Amino acid sequence: MDLMYRIFNLVNEINAVEHRLEEIYEYTGEEAYFWEQQISYAVIGKSCFVLADRLRTLGGLLERVVDEWEWDPVERMDKRKKRAKDERAQREARP
Questions:
Q1: pLDDT number for residue 76
Q2: Residues with Cβ within 8 Å of residue 58, at least 6 apart in sequence
Q3: Percentage of the chain with pLDDT > 90?
Q4: What is the pLDDT of residues 67-85, one digit of tens each?
Q5: What's the predicted TM-score (pTM) here?
Q6: Terminus-to-terminus CA distance in the chain, angstroms?
Q7: pLDDT digits (tens, 9 = 90+) for 7-47
Q8: Other CB atoms within 10 Å distance of the CB of residue 21
Q9: d(CA 52, CA 64)
Q10: What is the CA radius of gyration of the chain?
Q11: Closest CA to 66 of 53, 54, 79, 57
Q12: 83 and 38 Cβ atoms separated by less than 8 Å
């Protein structure tokens, strides 16, 4: 997908997530909303980092550096997404 299109489409993706989250909150409640929000925002956040990395490469800028003593936002989003998916699976498995 074209980089410029992905950047411009990011707003549409965010709006779609917001709309979906409103429906989830209205029909399933706060707990489901919370975990879906965690998953959705992690996906969007990670997409933003991928776009930023591609822009850095395209612009000839230095790569994003994560010091061993600092937290990596992409890694943190991956962990949040996994935790939220696990919680959702547990919730759906309940009778």
A1: 85
A2: 3
A3: 46
A4: 777 778 888 888 888 998 9
A5: 0.77
A6: 42
A7: 999 999 999 999 999 999 998 888 889 889 999 999 999 99
A8: 17
A9: 9
A10: 16
A11: 53
A12: yes
Angle at the Cα of 22 (from 18 to 27), degrees rounded to 5?
150
Q: Which domain holds residue 79?
A: 3-93
Q: Which residue shows structure tokens 């997530």? A: 17
Closest by CA to 14, choosing from 22, 3, 4, is 22
Decide: 36 and 24 in contact? Cβ < 8 Å.
yes
Compute CA distances 51 → 15, 37, 39, 80, whole Å.
18, 21, 18, 20
Tokens representing residue 73 in the block: 């936002």
Q: How many domains does the chain have?
A: 1
- Are residues 88 and 36 in contact, defined by beta-carbon separation less than 8 angstroms? yes
| Contact yes or no for 35/91 (Cβ under 8 A) | yes
- Total residue count of the chain as it appears in this document: 95
Gap between the Cα atoms of 39 and 34, Å rounded: 9
Q: Give, for 63, the enclosing helix (H) or strand (E).
A: none
Report residue 62 as tokens.
Answer: 């230095």
